[in-house]
C-alpha cells in the first residue's frame, strides 16, 4: 500500500467526525489534501460545514472543492480541526510545519474545541526530533535571531544544525505571514516543553512547530498487506 493510500485511509477515518453544521479547522499538507478531497465529496452530497483554512494553499484547495469558508475573525471558535503532522509521540505531542504553515495551523488548532491529527503510521515516534523542527521567525534581524535560537537550543539540552529554509528558486522561503523558517536539525528533543519555553523567549521567534497539549487524538494508518490498518491514539 502506497503512502498516498495510507494518507487517504487516515483521512477517511476522520470524515465521520465531521457533523452537520460544524465549524471546521482544515489543515495543510498532503494528508490534509486527501481529507479536503473527501470533505468536498460530502459537501457536494449535502453536508453543511464552514471551514477555516490553515494556509493559502488549503484555502485554494477548499475553494476548488466548493467547501464554504470563513476566517477565524468571523468564526473565532471552532468545533474541530483536522490536520496532518510531521511527527507524533505517545503523548500526542507533535512536530508540525513541514509545509511552512505552522503559525496558522497552531492558531486554528488552539481555537478549536478538538484537534485530530491524520497521518501515516510512519509519523509515530518514540522521541520527537528526527524531523527538523520548524521555527517561524521575523525577517528583521534574522542573523541575531538565529544566534539566540542556537543558544535556546543548547540551554534546553539539544544540539544540532540550524538551517534557513529556501524555496525551489533558492530564495528564503516566506510563509503565508511573510516570515522565514529556521529548521532545527536536532535528531532528538528530550524535553520538548523546555525547548518550547526557551524558543518562545527569543525575540524574533513568531512561533515554533512543537504542538504540545493541543492534539486530542491521532488517526494513524499503517500498511497491513494490501489493506490499511488504522489505529487511534487518544480519544476520538
Ligand atoms: O505541518 C504541516 C504543514 O505545515 C503538515 O501537516 C505536515 O507537514 C504533514 O504534511 P503531510 O501530510 O504532507 O505529510
From TrEMBL:
Enzyme Commission identifier(s): 5.3.1.6
Sorted UniProt keywords: Isomerase
Positions annotated to bind substrate: 28-31, 83-86, 96-99, 123
Catalytic reaction list: aldehydo-D-ribose 5-phosphate = D-ribulose 5-phosphate
Pfam families per record: Rib_5-P_isom_A
Gene Ontology MF term list: ribose-5-phosphate isomerase activity
CDD domains xref list: RPI_A
Pathway terms, separated by semicolons: Carbohydrate degradation; pentose phosphate pathway; D-ribose 5-phosphate from D-ribulose 5-phosphate (non-oxidative stage): step 1/1
Coiled-coil region(s): none
Isomerase among keywords: yes
Active site: 105
Purpose: Catalyzes the reversible conversion of ribose-5-phosphate to ribulose 5-phosphate.
Subunit-level organization: Homodimer.
PANTHER family for this protein: RIBOSE-5-PHOSPHATE ISOMERASE 3, CHLOROPLASTIC-RELATED
Protein family according to the UniProt entry: Belongs to the ribose 5-phosphate isomerase family.
Protein name per Swiss-Prot or TrEMBL: Ribose-5-phosphate isomerase A
Record gene name: rpiA
Amino acid at each position: 500500500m502506497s503512502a498516498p493510500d495510507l494518507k487517504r485511509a487516515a483521512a477517511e477515518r476522520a470524515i465521520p467526525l465531521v457533523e452537520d453544521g460544524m465549524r471546521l479547522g482544515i489543515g495543510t499538507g498532503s494528508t490534509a489534501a486527501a481529507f479536503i478531497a473527501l470533505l468536498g465529496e460530502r459537501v457536494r452530497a449535502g453536508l453543511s460545514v464552514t471551514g477555516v483554512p490553515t494556509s493559502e494553499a488549503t484555502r485554494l484547495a477548499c475553494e476548488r472543492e466548493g467547501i464554504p469558508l470563513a476566517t477565524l475573525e468571523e468564526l473565532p471558535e471552532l468545533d474541530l480541526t483536522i490536520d496532518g503532522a510531521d511527527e507524533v509521540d505517545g503523548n500526542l505531542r507533535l512536530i508540525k510545519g513541514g509545509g511552512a504553515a505552522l503559525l496558522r495551523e497552531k492558531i486554528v488548532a488552539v481555537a478549536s474545541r478538538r484537534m485530530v491529527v491524520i497521518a501515516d503510521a510512519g509519523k509515530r515516534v518514540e522521541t520527537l526530533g528526527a524531523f527538523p523542527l520548524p521555527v517561524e521567525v521575523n525577517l528583521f534581524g534574522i542573523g541575531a535571531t538565529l544566534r539566540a535560537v542556537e543558544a535556546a537550543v543548547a540551554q534546553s539540552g539539544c544540539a544540532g544544525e540550524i538551517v534557513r529554509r529556501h524555496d525551489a528558486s533558492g530564495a528564503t522561503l516566506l510563509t503565508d505571514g511573510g516570515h522565514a523558517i529556521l529548521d532545527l536539525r536536532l535528531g532528538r528533543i528530550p524535553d520538548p516543553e523546555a525547548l518550547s519555553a526557551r524558543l518562545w523567549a527569543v525575540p524574533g521567534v513568531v512561533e515554533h512547530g512543537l504542538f504540545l497539549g493541543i492534539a486530542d487524538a491521532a488517526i494513524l494508518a499503517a500498511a497491513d498487506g494490501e489493506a490499511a490498518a488504522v489505529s487511534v491514539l487518544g480519544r476520538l
